[in-house]
Amino acid sequence: MSTEFKTEVKNTGSGVSAAVKFKDADAEAIVRRNSLWALGVGLLPLPGLDLLGVTAIQIKMLNELARNYKVEFSENRAKSILSSLAGGLGTLAGAPVLFSLVKVIPILGQTAGLVSMPLSAGAFTYAVGKIFTQHFASGGTFLSFDPESVRDHFRSEFESAKQTVKDMQKESGAPHS
């Protein structure tokens, strides 16, 4: 398995950003597939069930990435890291919970939740996958992962993942939120 990363620098109009591109096709396939699953689970109309489903998908993805890089998997550590990464997004971290809970409001809330939750779930999953692909490819493990040290990078990956997930959604023919 050949793992390389290429850094692409883009001028986005609001500044210059660097995005790490996948070079490990297996890891990219794992991240893309699970991000699309998260996008789909985000469409579930029941509040809370969507969050549980997305979390389960993210844990499954981390397990698959760990196997891909021959890193020992720890479900408890994965859950802890996911919580830390979500918390590190600050006010953005509450968005998926809000998008899920708003679904209890008939019609308007359900529509708003069904529009917002899938994109948020898919983008968060994609950003987690990219961060862990980079971490594992550089020899890291679950024990050596420090959410605090990647907080800014994760926030940047999450923001760019929103467009990536929209593009993946179009390519795959998945229902649009």
Brief digest:
This protein is mostly helical. It has one domain (25-172).
Can you walk me through this structure?
The structure is a single chain. This protein has 177 residues and is mostly helical. It has one domain (25-172). It is 63% helix and 7% strand. The chain starts with 5 loop residues before the first strand and ends in a 5-residue tail after the last helix.
- In terms of DSSP E residues, the strand content is 5-15%
- Gap between N and C termini: 35 Å
Structural class: mainly alpha
Q: Compute the number of helices.
A: 6
Overall structural domain count: 1
Uncertain residue segments: 1-20
How do the SSEs run, as a string of H and E? EEHHHHHH
* Count of individual beta strands: 2
Radius of gyration: 16 Å
Biggest β-sheet strands, sense, barrel: 2 strands, antiparallel
Query: What's the average pLDDT?
Result: 78
Say what oligomer this is. Answer: single chain
Helix content: 55-70%
Backbone shape: globular
Spatial order of strands in the largest sheet: 1-2
Which secondary structure elements does this structure contain, and how are they paired or packed?
Elements: E1 6-11, E2 16-21, H1 25-41, H2 49-68, H3 75-88, H4 94-101, H5 108-137, H6 151-172
Antiparallel strand pairs: 1-2
Summary tags:
7% strand; 2 strands; mainly alpha; single chain; 6 helices; two-stranded antiparallel sheet; 63% helix; 177 residues
